[in-house]
From TrEMBL:
Its cofactor is [4Fe-4S] cluster. Binds 1 [4Fe-4S] cluster per subunit. Following nitrosylation of the [4Fe-4S] cluster binds 1 [4Fe-8(NO)] cluster per subunit. This is Transcriptional regulator WhiB. It comes from Phytohabitans aurantiacus. [4Fe-4S] cluster binds at C25, C51, C54, C60. The keyword Metal-binding applies. InterPro entries: 4FE4S_WBL (IPR034768), Whib (IPR003482). Keywords: 4Fe-4S, Cytoplasm, Disulfide bond, DNA-binding, Iron, Iron-sulfur, Metal-binding, Transcription, Transcription regulation. The gene is whiB.
């Protein structure tokens, strides 16, 4: 993995869990967070169970929403979960502007 940047603009590109071997989403378990099954469907149940116990779940989810991650499990959510959250966030922002 490349060195992680120190400045805030570049750091936004890196999830708060990057390089954390002490967390369940370390490279040894990466397949649970991304891999589709033989039919092309993703079974995220193992990853979701690991995420819900993780101390970095909230910052990880915030990063995934801020960077609009469309693949894998981030912060205890699936891509479908995050898409719904982003839609809700956009709707709330529209209402606030009215």
């Amino acid at each position: 993995m490349p060195a992680m940047p120190n400045d805030l603009v570049s750091a936004r590109r890196w999830p708060p869990v990057a390089g954390r071997r002490d967390l369940a989403c370390n490279p040894d378990n990466a397949s649970a967070f991304y891999s589709p099954d033989s039919r092309g469907f993703s079974d995220y149940s193992r990853a979701l169970a690991l995420c819900w116990r993780c101390p970095a779940r909230r910052p990880c989810l915030a990063w995934a929403l801020d960077t609009e991650q469309r693949h894998g499990v981030w912060g205890g959510t699936t891509p479908t979960d995050r898409a719904a959250m982003l839609t809700d966030r956009a709707a709330l922002a529209d209402l606030a502007r009215e």
